[in-house]
Amino acid sequence: MSNLSMVPEAAPPSQGAVPCCTPLISAELSTPDAERLATVFKALSDPVRLRLLSRVASHPAGEACVCDIADVGVSQPTVSHHLKKLREAGLLTSQRRRTWVYYRVDPDVFAALASLLAMPART
Amino acid sequence: MSNLSMVPEAAPPSQGAVPCCTPLISAELSTPDAERLATVFKALSDPVRLRLLSRVASHPAGEACVCDIADVGVSQPTVSHHLKKLREAGLLTSQRRRTWVYYRVDPDVFAALASLLAMPART
Q1: CB < 8 Å to A57, chain B
Q2: Do B47 and A35 touch (CB under 8 A)?
Q3: What pTM was computed for the model?
Q4: What pLDDT does residue B62 have?
Q5: Would you put residue A90 in left (φ > 0), alpha (ψ -120 to 50) or beta?
Q6: pLDDT of A54 over the 50 cut
Q7: DSSP for B9-47?
Q8: CB A63 within 8 A of CB A103
Q9: Alpha carbon of A53: minimum distance to chain B alpha carbons (Å)
Q10: What is the pLDDT, as a whole number, of residue A81?
């Protein structure tokens, strides 16, 4: 079974199912799974993207208007570029409502990543 | 409190303590924490590094000789480069014994990352 059944190949529709990934400790990653997972971690490898993501994730109701999260010290086009990368990695979903775009984290993708990294506690 | 108290600034000695990170959903990342975390995710953003890491993590006893994990289709100097990046990010520790270097994952760092990404299940 793939380690990454819940990590999307591209910005997906929400899945609804509870994710379940094989932890890295249990099975060696296949090359295709490693390539897909590397894309997700690459999206997480920029400090501005991480700050934007944490702003959305920690926002009340788990959703944030771009107007509420965009003051991270970079230009508006740069914010848009970073949000696009997070969407493409499946970490955020977006929805336009009138003037503004609203962003929401995909909890299934986060849970899949957390499961993948899970390890027994050190004794 | 920092989200990243257990994510090391550089390849650290093992800590022993059970890690405990504030999930992204609970608190916005500070700029310094985002920069440190981005470095760790950058180390995870390469497919060959992920395959090497999963080979160590899934190896019996949680430790692997470089001689057992290095056939990932790239040259030996490239393997060494990738293992160095994983060590620098604190994801692996290494120990030379006679001829070979042995690698081990740091479960505290993995647990810290998994906690950071934890989200309530979708209902």
Answers
A1: 23-25, 119
A2: yes
A3: 0.82
A4: 79
A5: left
A6: yes
A7: SSSPPP--SPP----TTTSPPPHHHHHHHHHHHHHTSSH
A8: yes
A9: 8
A10: 96
Instruction: Please report, for chain B, the start and end positions of each structural domain, with discontinuous segments joined by +.
Output: 28-117
- Cβ-defined contact of B28 to A34 (cutoff 8 Å): no
- Interface predicted TM-score of the whole assembly (ipTM), two decimals: 0.81
The arithmetic mean of pLDDT across residues B20-33, rounded, is 79
Rg (CA), chain B: 15
Whether the CB of A31 is below 8 Å from some CB of chain B: the reply is: yes
CATH, domain range A28-117:
1.10.10.10
Tell me how close the Cα of B62 comes to any Cα of chain A, in angstroms: 8
Record the tokens describing residue A91, joined without a space: 């970490």
Mind listing the pLDDT tens digit for each residue in B77-115? 999 999 999 999 999 999 999 999 999 998 888 888 888
Q: B101 to chain A, minimum CA–CA distance in Å?
A: 20
